[in-house]
Amino acid sequence: MFRGFSRYTSQTCMKRIKPKDILRAALDRFAMIIKKNYKRRRY
Questions:
Q1: Phi and psi dihedrals of 22, rounded to 5?
Q2: Residues 6 or more apart from 17 whose CB is under 8 A from it?
Q3: How far apart are CA 31 and CA 3, in angstroms?
Q4: Predicted local confidence at residue 1, as pLDDT
Q5: Which domain of life is it from (predicted)?
Q6: Nearest CA to 29 among 39, 37, 17?
Q7: CA triplet 27, 30, 31: central angle to 5 degrees?
Q8: In 3-state terms, what secondary structure has residue 1?
Q9: What's the N-to-C CA distance of the chain in angstroms?
Q10: Which pLDDT tens digit goes with each residue over 1-43?
Q11: CA distances from 33 to 18, 21, 28, 40 (A)
């Protein structure tokens, strides 16, 4: 069940989303985490 689901999602994502978009999303998440940690340290 899980393997088939992962294959289906990966195929649909690869068709719709480009690798550059995935990298952008990862960088955005990383930046958000850094901002949260920075605010916690600062205050």
A1: -65, -45
A2: none
A3: 31
A4: 43
A5: Bacteria
A6: 37
A7: 85
A8: coil
A9: 46
A10: 455 556 655 665 556 667 777 778 888 888 888 888 887 776 5
A11: 23, 18, 9, 11
